Amino acid sequence: MVHKYAKPRGYKARQLIVRARNLRSGANFIPPRSFRARRFYFSNEENGLLHVPKDQAPNPQAQMFSDPNMAMDMMKKNLSMIIPQTLTFAWVNFFFSGFVAAKIPFPLTQRFRSMLQNGIDLSTVDVSYVSSRSWYFLNLFGLRGLFSLILGEDNATDDTQRMMQMSGFGFDPTKSLGAEKDSLDIVQHDWALPKFEQRAEAVLRKVLS
Amino acid sequence: MVSKTEETQLSNLETQVDNGGGGAWEYLCLVRKLKVRRSDRVLKHGLSILNDLKKRSSLGPDEWTLYEQVAVAAMDCQSLEVAKDCIKVLRKKFPESKRVGRLEGMLLEAKGAWAEAEKAYSSLLEDNPLDQVIHKRRVAMAKGQGNVSVAIEWLNKYLEIFMADHDAWRELAEIYVSLQMYKQAAFCYEELILSQPMVPLYHLAYADVLYTLGGLENLQNAKKYYASTIDLTGGKNTRALFGVCLCSSAIGQIAKGRNKDDKESPELQSLAATALEREYKQKASDKLSLLTAALKGLKVSS
């Protein structure tokens, strides 16, 4: 809850975007002069609401560097993931390469060979035999759901969630303000109201007949 | 917006509860969900639940919601003692809550202690400058004291941040109209039309403002917006029909001296006039003579 209230500027930017979007979609319903006045108000180069001065726009990369703790944290988490996995992989690869670890109780087509028989380069082996290296990979990716069930939602083995957090990290209002300004600039104003007189006539005729 | 089915549901429940048929809690929930103002009933039935220990404890955590609802209703009915008791209970349960702080501010307001209420609200706003309800309470307070210009000031400040809140735009428009500041009101109505282009009432209000402003261009625009209202309501809006007639007559008077190069569609007003006549014939035949006299005065009668 706290973060929602912490940024009045971000909130204002979001409201501004909604209003600008309304202006874009409803532009044809207000007189041309009103539309032009509004567009000027939103997007003029001096003090328009949507205009963001170049030097003020915060760079996400710069933001990352300004907060070294965050970068360190992320690196640590990544390292703690990567090192044990590389070690296990090396271990499995060294001791069990070329072994058959399991057999699937049903036949499969040749297309599955690359998936199930990683590390065995023999085309004559039946596809339902699973090589040890493939077994390792299958477990690594397939057991993620099970791990999250047993170990709780955010455990160290699950890095997909962190990826999601990364991509949604920090809604950047300045960027969408700029985009909104660009699309507002190219709107062609075509006043819809003159057409409405004819439509009203048609409606009344229909009512009266 | 309350839809028709919800309205019938509400009135059914209302009669059932009023006749002692039970379902008071469901009724209160519905009132809360639809945000309708039934303060006297909420106070009566809410209190009867709150005073009944068994019923109250069966609500579980919803009990506190009910306390809040009853407190607000009590303030609306000027039963300040009840409101005070409710707020006291809530304060005991939630000692740090901002929401209870808001209720306390409202209680001060209900007592008429404007200055203290103002102080309470501004201290709450310092903690959280984005509390929409408190901003709106401030506007309402200024309006309640008759300081319309202060209300406008607050509203404008509010709209600077929450500029997508169309209800606030509507309130501002109505205040401007009441002060006869039509240009500003026209701006607000344009904003409303932008946010909801398919609501005929905004078109109608905007047309009214334009017609009141006068001048050839405004009159022509007003006529267009009356026309759009007719289109959006399927010709059922009497005010829009009258508006078209009045606009055409006024435009005719202004443009009499000039050459008529911009072609006005002459058919619309005669169609509107016929539609009006038909409406009157069906629904108020005794007033038909008044209508024909008025239309004749406007010279739009066919």
UniProtKB/TrEMBL annotation, chain A:
Primary location: membrane
Keyword Transmembrane: yes
GO cellular component terms given for this protein: EMC complex
Keyword match Translocase: no
Superkingdom assignment: Eukaryota
Keywords: Membrane, Transmembrane, Transmembrane helix
Annotated compartments: Membrane
InterPro entries: EMC3 (IPR008568), EMC3/TMCO1 (IPR002809)
Segments traversing the membrane: 82-106
Any GO BP annotation: protein folding in endoplasmic reticulum
Topology with respect to the bilayer: Multi-pass membrane protein
UniProt family annotation: Belongs to the EMC3 family.
Name recorded for this polypeptide: ER membrane protein complex subunit 3
Automatic annotation (TrEMBL), chain B:
Domain EMC2 TPR-like residues, every copy: 100-209
InterPro entries in the cross-refs: EMC2-like, TPR-like_helical_dom_sf, TPR_EMC2
Topological type in the membrane: Peripheral membrane protein
GO CC terms, sorted: EMC complex
Keywords for this protein: Endoplasmic reticulum, Membrane, Repeat, TPR repeat
Subcellular location: Endoplasmic reticulum membrane
Main subcellular localisation: endoplasmic reticulum
Record-linked SUPFAM superfamilies: TPR-like
Coiled coil spans: none
Assembly notes: Component of the ER membrane protein complex (EMC).
Protein name from the UniProt record: ER membrane protein complex subunit 2
Organism: Lithocarpus litseifolius
